[in-house]
């Protein structure tokens, strides 16, 4: 069997018991990373290191940070092919990803390729970043009949206003690339803001004061939870 294993948003203790057991039992672990200007980085590698899993056969697959998906498509295909060979050789293989497997996860593309190769896969879900963010901020994402929207790369205040006419809570993901487009307008609003970055890591930063992040360099691993006020 091949396993897709979510390892959570960054805190190495926010792994399910099942996820950790499967990783410990695995013969080979594949993990994702990013490739930028020939430098390799992996968000999940420290989590494997924390749980003393790097002595195993671990193999990184690195994706270029680019809107051009050609390199990524090739890497996903090559990774799935390598996994199938190991599976046919009788190895227990796991593929890890940050956050949860079903939300903006690179694993989904690996899974698609594994399915096309008729490789059996079991998925082990994990904690996503905005759930941890809400817990850190001690704010409910929804109560009673509240509706939530999870939206990546919003670029204008008009988009945000449109979502908040229908939804009580808006989770903005991947705000790094678009923050400068709407921050000034956003800061004039009376909504409740819950900003989070690098959740679960030693570099974690959270605030409810949107003025504090006016000049802050927004990292890739960041999100903003917006909740309407009673008057909206």
Structure notes:
With 232 residues, this protein is α/β, with parallel strands linked by helices. The protein is 29% helix and 25% strand. The protein has seven helices and eleven strands. It has helices at 17-25, 45-50, 70-88, 107-116, 129-137, 157-163, 179-186, and strands at 2-6, 28-36, 39-41, 57-64, 93-97, 121-124, 148-152, 169-173, 192-197, 205-207, 222-227. Helix 3 (70-88) crosses helix 4. The protein starts with a strand and ends in a 5-residue tail after the last strand.
Give a concise summary.
With 232 residues, the chain is of the alpha/beta class. The chain has seven helices and eleven strands. The strands form two sheets. Strands 1, 2, 3, 4, 5 and 6 form a six-stranded mixed beta sheet that branches.
How does the helix and strand content classify structurally?
alpha/beta
Number of E-state strands: 11
Rg from alpha-carbon coordinates: 19 Å
Tell me the quaternary state: single chain
| Main sheet makeup | 6 strands, mixed
Low-confidence stretches: none
Helical fraction: 25-40%
Number of helices: 7
Given the C-alpha coordinates, what overall shape results?
A: elongated
Helix and strand run: EHEEHEHEHEHEHEHEEE
């Amino acid at each position: 069997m091949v396993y897709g294993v979510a390892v959570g948003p960054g805190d190495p203790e926010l792994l399910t018991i099942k996820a950790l057991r499967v990783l410990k039992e695995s013969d080979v672990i594949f993990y994702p990373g990013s490739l930028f200007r020939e430098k390799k980085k992996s968000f999940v590698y420290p989590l494997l290191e924390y749980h003393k899993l790097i002595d195993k056969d671990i193999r990184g697959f690195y994706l270029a940070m680019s809107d051009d998906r050609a390199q990524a498509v090739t890497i996903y295909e090559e990774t799935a092919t390598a996994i199938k060979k190991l599976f046919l050789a009788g190895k227990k293989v796991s593929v890890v990803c940050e956050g949860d497997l079903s939300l903006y996860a690179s694993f989904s593309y690996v899974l698609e390729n594994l399915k096309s190769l008729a490789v059996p896969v079991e998925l082990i879900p994990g904690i996503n970043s905005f759930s941890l963010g809400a817990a850190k901020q001690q704010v409910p994402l929804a109560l009673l009949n509240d509706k939530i929207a999870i939206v990546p790369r919003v670029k204008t205040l008009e988009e945000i206003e449109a979502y908040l006419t229908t939804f009580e809570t808006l989770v903005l993901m991947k705000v790094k690339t678009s923050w400068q487009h709407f921050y000034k307008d956003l800061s004039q609003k009376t909504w409740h803001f819950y900003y989070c970055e690098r959740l679960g890591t030693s570099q974690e930063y959270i605030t409810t004061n949107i003025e504090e992040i006016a000049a802050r360099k927004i990292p890739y691993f960041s999100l903003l939870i917006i909740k309407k006020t009673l008057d909206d």
